[in-house]
UniProtKB/TrEMBL annotation, chain A:
GO terms for cellular component: cytoplasm; nucleus; SCF ubiquitin ligase complex. Residues 5-68 form the SKP1 component POZ domain. It comes from Drosophila melanogaster (Fruit fly). This is CG11942. The keyword Nucleotidyltransferase does not apply. Signal peptide: none annotated. Gene3D superfamilies: Potassium Channel Kv1.1, Chain A. It comes from the Eukaryota. GO terms for molecular function: cullin family protein binding. The gene is SkpE.
From TrEMBL, chain B:
InterPro entries: FBXL15_LRR (IPR057207), Leu-rich_rpt_Cys-con_subtyp (IPR006553), LRR_dom_sf (IPR032675). This is Jetlag, isoform A. It holds the Pfam family DUF7885. GO terms for biological process: entrainment of circadian clock by photoperiod; locomotor rhythm; SCF-dependent proteasomal ubiquitin-dependent protein catabolic process. One of its GO terms (cellular component) is SCF ubiquitin ligase complex. SMART domains: LRR_CC. SUPFAM superfamilies: RNI-like. Residues 130-287 form the F-box/LRR-repeat protein 15-like leucin rich repeat domain. Gene3D superfamilies: Ribonuclease Inhibitor. It comes from the Eukaryota.
Amino acid sequence: MVTPTIKLESSEGVIFPTEVRVAMVSETIKTMLDHFAVQNDENAIVPLHSVSTFTLGKILAWANHHKDDDDQSTEGEELKPRRPYAISPWDAIFLMVNSTTLLEIILAAKQLQIKGLLELTYNVVANMIRGKTPEEIRFIFNIPEDVSPSVDGELRWKDLFLWPMDF
Amino acid sequence: MCTLHPEEEAHLMAMASGGQPTRTASPRPLVTASIAAPRSLFDVCWDDVLIPQVAVYLSLKDLFNLRCCSRTAQRFVEAALEKRQELHLSGNNTKNIDVAFRVLARCCQRLEVLHLACCRWLTDELLLPLLANNKKRLWAVNLNECVNITALSLQPIIVECKELRVLKLSKCQWLTTGAVDALTLHQSKLVEFDISYCGAIGERCLIIFFRKLNKLTVLSLANTPSVTDQVLIQIGNYCRELEHINVIGCAAISDYGVHALTVHCLRLRTLLIRRCPRVTELSLAPLRQRRLYIDRPQPDVGLNAYNLNDFYPSDFLVY
């Protein structure tokens, strides 16, 4: 029996043939398939206008790697407060990307409702901030520096920005 | 603040409206305008993502470092601090901590747990604005060894924090009989209370206090000279759910008070009672039968029943 597949289309029109089981990690796609019963339609195309080709490729690579995880059975744990957990080596290497790509993955995973990937990316963002100086955070996330003493005046500047805390 | 672009919003609306989401071919041209990538961290939705999923797992130091990055970062961090529920600064006496505390006092609106023990920099001027913004939700306040605040800061805690359950005021020499009377009048839900090393409290107000505040499970009265047998008798009579009590250095108590605890506090699990010279094994022995933890070691009586030194080698020479 042929493994059922579905075609996902990125915003640039590139088609990604995908196993249905892999695509099911997305609650959005899962809901579509459950409602419209198109699993056997070989010509079905799901357009994802808000996900770029590169981002969709990354997400499908992650989903393919984690297709055997028990994410679905842990939905009840959502009521419990999440604790930071160790990131697996594969995931750490997978998300060793620049912050723009990481933020794109977050937005896409949020729209597609991929819970495991979202939790992973949230942890990665928190780790990218933890223990860093303001200059490092600014560099990592491309945050434009929109304040300077000459513009705001020395006194107001000091009040506005507590320069790095040592506590 | 939400960062969805108009095209994304339209797409989500189309998906939600239940229209046919799949088709045999895409009518869109292959060449489409590229959707603008998120330009920075703060383009991600704050309320859904950044605050509940990222900011809550960052330390205050990390948040303040992030706050220094830009004006938007400042607004973001202050929005995150507004929703913060716990503040743990105990033992933190570093440079600039008072300036940071002013920011916290201005931003935090939903604090429930406030731990400020051993903060020598803490003054009434710093603490009162924070209490004014957070008095409705606070249920745990730790001001142990805050030697530079006064009863002025304690008043809003006593009068207006109606959900208060944990109050720690160890080594607050400024705590007086009047403050304990006010606590008796305004509070009713305390389960954990610490007034160790508070020498200015009278015995009478404690007797009345424990008659009213009878839900206590954890109590520390160490080195408080006004703790007498009468106080312990009141605790035994009224605070029957007590599990842990610390009366180290309460020189005025004796076996009568401990006996009252023994008879009535059946859930007692910890009794710290060093440096109480008038308490003897006569009252502690029944407690040891219940296998609770007592920090005074049990005297070694059994092994001395037979004095081995009574035997001398010369006795065997008779034979």
